[in-house]
Amino acid sequence: MFALTWTNEDGTFDVVEFDTVDTEDHTLPNEVTEFPVEQGPDVTDNIRIKPRTLSVKGYISDTPLYSNHDVLLNADYQTQTLDLPPRPHYEPKTFTVDVPGSPLQPNASSLLNAGLKALFGSTPKVTPLVLKGTEPSPKQSVQVLKFQNFQSRVRGTFDLLKKARETKVLITAVTDFDEISGLVIESLTMPRSVDDGTGAVMGVDLRQITIASSLEVEAPKPAEGLGQARKFTGSKAAKDDANAAEKSEETRKSLAKRILGGLGGLLP
Predict the structure, then answer these.
(1) How confident is the model at residue 266 (pLDDT cuts 50, 70, 90)?
(2) 102 is in which domain, residue-wise?
(3) 34 three-class SS
(4) Is residue 192 assigned to a domain?
(5) DSSP state of 66
(6) How far apart are CA 170 and CA 174, in angstroms?
């Protein structure tokens, strides 16, 4: 068993199932990083699990299997009467068994005739069925799957896989041994040859990806004063320079007053 399933953006569900699977390759790689040391063997520094891959190659035919794509949309079971040929007609017919030979002569024929008469009490008779002719066969009907319009299953399957590749949908692969989700189509191939007839061999390489999810949390309330508009008053160094200049100006003015006061005392 092998099938690829996915859900489209509009909510519809699609399935691709191969008639026969030729190869199925599951790969689960790890990337191992190593570094040399002075003594002893190499020490494993880190092991990183890489995405697993899946490659499958199978055959798709136009045989209208009921589980195939679009069969339910284009076909349905209908009652069909069988046109059977006439059948032979047999009737029973009785024959008398006449064994030649005289009973007075001890030969094989006379002994056989005497033995048959002793068993049946008289001349033996047989009644086999004899062909008398033909008669019409009884009417019979069957349920057959009939298409209202023909649609190539090979083309429909290839179109589905192309659409899944272009829309980058997440695919789930269902196999006999595992069920793998989160796959995307890495490559799609369909080689054709005369041996394929009306069908086709399709190869699909898939790679599993990791889906990152986001989580919304409530931010803490800001402290008092944070996040509010404030007037810029300059840096601390600029404030210190302004204060020093202001004190220097006051000192200069006070010194000038004392000089002027002293000179005023000297004047008449």
Answers:
(1) very low
(2) 97-136
(3) strand
(4) yes
(5) T
(6) 13
Give dist(CA 205, CA 195) in Å, integer.
Answer: 23
- Same domain? 204 vs 169: yes
| 132 in the same domain as 174 | no
Per-residue tokens: 15: 């399935």
DSSP class of residue 194 equals G
For 184, other C-beta atoms within 10 Å of its C-beta total 16
Split into its structural domains, the chain has a count of 2
Report the relative pairing of strands 171-175 and 30-35 from DSSP bridges.
unpaired
Q: To the nearest whole percent, how much of the chain has pLDDT over 90?
A: 21
pLDDT tens column, 119-145: 555 566 777 888 888 888 888 888 776
Condensed to tens digits (0 to 9), the pLDDT of residues 68-100 reads 555 666 667 778 888 888 888 888 888 776 655
Cα 71 to Cα 63: distance, rounded to the nearest angstrom: 10
Instruction: Judge if pTM exceeds 0.85.
Output: no
Residue that terminates a domain, selected from 188, 208, 228: 208
Task: Give the position of tokens 């009785």.
Answer: 94
Domain membership flag for residue 195: yes
